[in-house]
């Protein structure tokens, strides 16, 4: 199992790396957000441990860009000294699978890693009714029909499916998919929602993508 550890506190990073290697995990380290993005772009990991307070590029932006480029199949555990509910929610909404507040016991870190790796084996696809998104092959089906999606369409749909049943705003979708490049003054999110409606809902009696007037969108059965 290969783990990427992104932590700018050198002493803490060494302690975590040594402990994980003693447990049989392979560990690579990154000490800032830029280095993390470089490694995540070119390499594949079974799990990412990500500190939120990083130099150069902060952890939330690293997380958003990683999810935008690589999707949601790799579990991400965020480490944070920020223990407010708002900060935790921001991390989870950006695509984290779990979080651990500093300081923490190493045994708890190990337990959370084991749980995330077990979950990863079980969650290689997302499903809402007859809509299926395969996170390994990056393919989608509605019933027996394969749906061809661009990378951005896949990212928008993945975000909606991960939050199925919830109302998500245009700003949340835009920030997740386009990151720092998202301009809230444009209608880019609406354009991609319309693309997805044509591909996902057109020709099917039950619609899955719904507009919630004045609030945003929701993916759920009619």
Structure description:
This protein has 222 residues and is an alpha/beta fold. The protein folds into 2 domains: 2-119, Response regulator (Rossmann fold); 125-219, Winged helix-like DNA-binding domain superfamily/Winged helix DNA-binding domain (Arc Repressor Mutant, subunit A, Orthogonal Bundle). 43% of the residues lie in helices and 21% in strands. It contains 8 helices and 11 strands. It has helices at residues 10-22, 33-42, 59-70, 85-93, 106-122, 151-162, 170-178, 188-201, and strands at residues 2-6, 26-30, 47-51, 76-80, 98-101, 125-128, 131-134, 139-142, 145-147, 209-212, 216-219. The strands form 3 sheets. Strands 2-1-3-4-5 form a 5-stranded parallel sheet, with helices on both faces. Strands 6-7-8-9 form a 4-stranded antiparallel sheet, covered by helices on one side. A hairpin with a 2-residue loop joins β8 (139-142) and β9. The radius of gyration is 18 Å and the shape is globular. The relative contact order is 0.10. The model has no long low-confidence stretch (mean pLDDT 89).
């Amino acid at each position: 199992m290969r783990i990427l550890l992104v932590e700018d506190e050198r002493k803490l990073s060494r302690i975590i790396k040594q402990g994980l290697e003693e447990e049989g995990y392979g560990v690579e380290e990154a000490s800032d957000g830029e280095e993390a993005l470089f490694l995540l772009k070119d390499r594949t990991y079974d799990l990412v441990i990500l500190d939120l307070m990083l130099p150069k590029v902060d952890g939330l932006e690293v997380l958003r860009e990683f999810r935008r480029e690589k999707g949601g199949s790799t579990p991400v555990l965020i480490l944070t000294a920020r223990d407010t509910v708002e900060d935790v929610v921001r991390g989870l909404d950006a695509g984290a699978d779990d979080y651990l507040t500093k300081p923490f016991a190493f045994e708890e870190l190990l337990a959370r890693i084991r749980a995330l790796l077990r979950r990863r084996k079980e969650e290689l696809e997302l499903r809402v009714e007859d809509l299926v998104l395969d996170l390994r092959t990056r393919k989608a089906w509605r019933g027996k029909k394969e749906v061809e999606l661009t990378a951005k369409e896949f990212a928008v749909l993945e975000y909606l499916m991960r939050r199925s049943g919830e109302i998500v705003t245009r700003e949340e979708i835009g920030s997740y998919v386009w990151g720092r490049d998202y301009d809230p003054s444009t209608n880019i999110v609406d354009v991609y929602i319309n693309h997805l409606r044509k591909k996902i809902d057109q020709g099917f009696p039950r619609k899955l993508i719904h507009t919630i007037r004045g609030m945003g969108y929701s993916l759920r059965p009619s």
